[in-house]
Amino acid sequence: CIPGQLADCTISLLFEDEQCAYQAYCRLQYIFHLASIGTNTCGQLQGVDSSHDSGEVLQAAKALARSSGTVVAVSGAVDFITDGEQVISASNGVAMMQKITATGCAVTALIAAFVGADPSDALAAAACALAIFGLAGEIGMESAKGPASLRMHLIDALYGLDEQTVTSGVKIALLP
């Protein structure tokens, strides 16, 4: 990515064989670029002001996951996680989380921890991490007045999560 052009989405690539996580903040066009490398679609990207529907983003994420042998997570109002074949959606979170610096880094660290705990199913681990982080954001937002207080309450919510809150609060679905 080019410095100064960060935002719009977070791509988390989980290299299952190396059990490490790599994160890059990029514009949606970067997903399409990565997905098109090595195919005849390279060079057909639209400008930075173009808009892509979730179907286009999902297809690009699936193509990237297949071509790189990774799990790809695209965050947004609904997070999509794919291994190139299966797709899981995680619908937890609040819009103000985008206003907090380093939430992408924090959720990527959580994804890495979950994958490290269960490397045999990186897809499910990444989906659970994203949903739980989003759930903590929802809980934190109940007490927050803005981004600064949300950061504090998000951390407190992560610390205070218990099994019942997680199992009743996460919104994860396996998509057809």
UniProtKB/TrEMBL annotation:
GO annotation terms (biological process): thiamine biosynthetic process; thiamine diphosphate biosynthetic process
Catalysed reaction, written as an equation: 5-(2-hydroxyethyl)-4-methylthiazole + ATP = 4-methyl-5-(2-phosphooxyethyl)-thiazole + ADP + H(+)
Domain of life: Eukaryota
Keyword annotations: ATP-binding, Kinase, Magnesium, Metal-binding, Nucleotide-binding, Thiamine biosynthesis, Transferase
Pathway this chain belongs to: Cofactor biosynthesis; thiamine diphosphate biosynthesis; 4-methyl-5-(2-phosphoethyl)-thiazole from 5-(2-hydroxyethyl)-4-methylthiazole: step 1/1
EC number: 2.7.1.50
GO molecular-function term, one example from the UniProt record: ATP binding
Uppermost EC category: transferase
SUPFAM superfamilies: Ribokinase-like
Pfam family for this entry, one: HK
Cofactor: Mg(2+)
Protein name per its UniProtKB record: hydroxyethylthiazole kinase
Highest classification ranks of the organism: Eukaryota, Viridiplantae, Streptophyta, Embryophyta, Tracheophyta
